[in-house]
Each structure stands twice: as structure tokens, then as C-alpha cells.
């Protein structure tokens, strides 16, 4: 006699409990999961995605590309939070988009902070517009340059900025803000220094090769003067950490030395003529003003040698003007 034990599942099927078991136990099916599409989401959901799409198609060549992108992403995330909270009651969607919203707001705030208008002191505006702005130095970088280890000093008429063979060249670098200074050697006038020009650019160039040297000329305030003064050691350290600004200083100092060489060869140059020379670069930018001053010392041990040097520079100047014409 064969005995077959009936299982509870078979009994339940025979009784007619199949629909209930289908809800409890997975039953294989060949039907697709997306056979019956759900209803269309709320309008807020679609507006959020429109903001995402606009942010992603903004061209990178646009000036405010990153600010617009972060702003549109933040708006899209905010709309997602509203949709998930009010219309879907989906806690996970609300939490994730709240995190994304916070990240985009922080990044947007940083970008807006970098784009903020930087206020430059009134006395320094002329220097920035004349020297640094044409070379695309940002106001923020210029403010960093002039905000540290830097001060504005004054000299009354007749006071000395440097005395030949006495003042060290290792201490400072200065740009004249206001007034006029006179450069002389052994009492003989060489050239003037006008606003927006470096006072001791040749000495700054020379200290890159030699330390502990003294000024070979005397620089005296011909008017009441104000000048921007950097600590040379700290400025050098700062420029080493800013390669772009380091190249800017090399260019500006080279051009300033060129203008000084022109004015040395032609002492009659005034401020207007010096401005015309600003855009004219020559091989003189490769020269050192200190070498020129050394030539003065070596060839002018007496008054006659000095006069010969001055006559020679005048003839060189006239010869240059002849070839220029």
C-alpha cells in the first residue's frame, strides 16, 4: 500500500488560498515591471529638471559660467526638496537633495566672494591703473601685494631717500606716489623720478646677484613726496610664492630701468615724454643700472672724467634721436 503524505502547500492550494500565498511568496512572472506606468509627476519636479538642463548646457566660455551653473543647480535642488516634501513624501529624496543644495550654496558663496568688488586705497589707484591693471593683475592680488609688509612713507622737500656709499640697498623697494625726486652723483644731476615710477629699481635688480651693497647715487626729494615702500626680504619671499606676480615685477622693473637709462642719456626728458616711452622696450631692459653706475665710478675718478661721461651720454642721446628721425 503506497502512502503519500500531503504537504500543507498542496492542501492550501486545494482549499483555494492561492491568491493569498501569491502575495506572500514570490511567483515567477514573464510580465515586465514597467507594463503599467505611473502617473506624471508634479510640475515642480519638471521645473527642477529644466533648471538642471539649463545649467548643464551653459557654455564654459561664458564669463560667469561657474556662478550660473552653481546657481541653477541650487535652484533645481531646492525645487526637488519642495517636490519630495510636499508632493511625494519621500524622505530619502528630500535628504539627498538638501545635502546637494547645501554644497552648491557653499560653492556659490565662495565664487561670489571671489568676484566681489575689491576696494583699492585712493592713493594706490593711480599705481594700479598705470602699472598693474594693463598687465591683468586682479584687484584682489594687488590688494594682497600692497596689504602686507608694505607701508606709505613721506619725505619733505630736501630730505634724502638714499645717500651714495652710505645707504644700504638691501632694505626696501619703493614706488613714488606723489612729488618728484632728484638723482645725483657727486653733486651732478643725473635724472628725475616721477610718480608711478620705482625709486630704486636698479638696486633691486643688483641685489639679486650681490648682497650688502650701498647706493652709488644720492636720491633727494625735490618736492614733498609720498612713496609706497616694501620690505625687500619679505617682498622677495612673497613673489616666490606668486610666480605670475614675480614675472610682472620682472617686467615692470626692467621697463623702469629702461626709462631711467633714457632719462639719464637725455636729462631734459619730462614726465610726459617718459610716459611715451612706457610702451617702447629695447635691449636696455637687459642691462643693469648698477653696471652703468659702476662705469661712472671707474671712469670718473676726477671731475674731468665725470664731465666726459656726461658729454658722452649726451652725444649718445643725440645720435639716438638722429637715427629715430
Distance between the termini: 133 Å
Question: How many H/I helical runs?
Answer: 13
**What proportion of the residues form beta strands (DSSP E)?**
5-15%
Summarize model confidence as the mean pLDDT.
75
Helicity level: 40-55%
* Unreliably modeled segments: 1-19, 277-290, 292-303, 313-325
| Overall body shape | rod-shaped
Query: What is the H/E order?
Result: HHHHHHHEEEEEHEEHHHHH
Total DSSP E strands: 7
The assigned structural class equals alpha+beta
Largest β sheet strand count, sense and barrel closure: 4 strands, antiparallel
Please give the order of strands in the largest beta sheet. Answer: 2-6-4-5
**Radius of gyration in whole Å, from Cα?**
38 Å
Features:
single chain; 325 residues; alpha+beta; 4-stranded antiparallel β-sheet; 3-stranded antiparallel β-sheet; 13 helices; rod-shaped; disordered N terminus; disordered C terminus
Q: How is this structure best described in words?
A:
The protein has 325 residues and is of the alpha+beta class. The chain is built from 13 helices and 7 strands. A hairpin with a 2-residue loop joins β4 (181-185) and β5 (188-193). The longest helix has 24 residues, at 65-88. The chain is rod-shaped and about 100 Å long.
Give a concise summary.
This protein has 325 residues and is α+β, with helices and mostly antiparallel strands.
Amino acid at each position: 500500500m503506497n502512502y503519500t503524505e500531503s504537504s500543507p502547500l498542496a492542501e492550501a492550494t486545494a482549499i483555494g488560498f492561492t491568491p493569498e500565498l501569491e502575495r506572500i511568496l514570490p511567483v515567477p512572472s514573464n510580465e515586465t515591471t514597467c507594463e503599467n506606468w505611473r502617473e506624471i509627476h508634479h510640475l515642480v519636479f519638471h521645473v527642477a529638471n529644466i533648471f538642471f538642463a539649463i545649467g548643464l548646457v551653459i557654455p564654459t566660455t561664458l564669463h560667469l559660467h561657474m556662478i550660473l551653473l552653481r546657481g541653477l543647480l541650487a535652484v533645481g535642488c531646492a525645487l526637488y526638496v519642495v517636490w519630495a516634501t510636499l508632493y511625494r513624501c519621500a524622505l530619502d529624496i528630500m535628504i539627498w537633495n538638501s545635502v546637494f543644495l547645501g554644497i552648491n550654496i557653499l560653492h556659490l558663496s565662495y565664487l561670489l566672494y571671489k568676484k566681489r568688488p575689491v576696494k583699492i586705497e585712493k592713493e594706490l589707484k593711480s599705481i594700479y591703473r598705470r602699472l598693474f591693471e594693463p598687465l591683468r593683475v586682479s584687484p584682489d592680488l594687488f590688494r594682497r601685494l600692497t596689504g602686507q609688509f608694505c607701508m606709505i612713507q613721506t619725505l619733505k622737500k630736501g630730505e634724502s631717500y638714499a645717500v651714495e656709499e652710505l645707504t644700504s640697498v638691501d632694505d626696501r623697494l619703493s614706488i613714488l606716489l606723489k612729488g618728484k625726486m632728484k638723482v645725483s652723483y657727486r653733486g651732478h644731476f643725473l635724472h628725475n623720478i616721477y610718480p608711478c615710477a620705482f625709486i630704486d629699481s636698479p638696486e633691486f635688480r643688483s641685489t639679486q646677484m650681490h648682497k650688502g651693497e650701498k647706493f652709488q647715487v644720492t636720491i633727494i626729494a625735490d618736492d614733498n613726496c609720498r612713496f609706497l615702500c616694501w620690505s625687500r626680504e619679505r617682498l622677495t619671499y612673497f613673489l616666490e610664492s606668486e610666480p605670475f606676480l614675480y614675472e610682472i615685477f620682472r617686467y615692470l622693473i626692467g621697463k623702469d630701468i629702461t626709462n631711467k637709462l633714457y632719462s639719464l642719456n637725455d636729462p631734459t626728458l619730462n614726465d610726459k615724454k617718459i610716459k611715451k616711452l612706457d610702451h617702447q622696450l629695447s635691449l636696455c631692459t637687459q642691462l643693469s643700472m648698477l653696471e652703468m653706475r659702476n662705469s661712472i665710478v671707474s671712469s670718473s675718478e676726477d671731475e674731468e672724467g665725470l664731465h666726459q661721461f656726461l658729454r658722452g651720454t649726451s652725444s649718445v642721446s643725440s645720435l639716438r634721436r638722429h637715427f629715430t628721425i
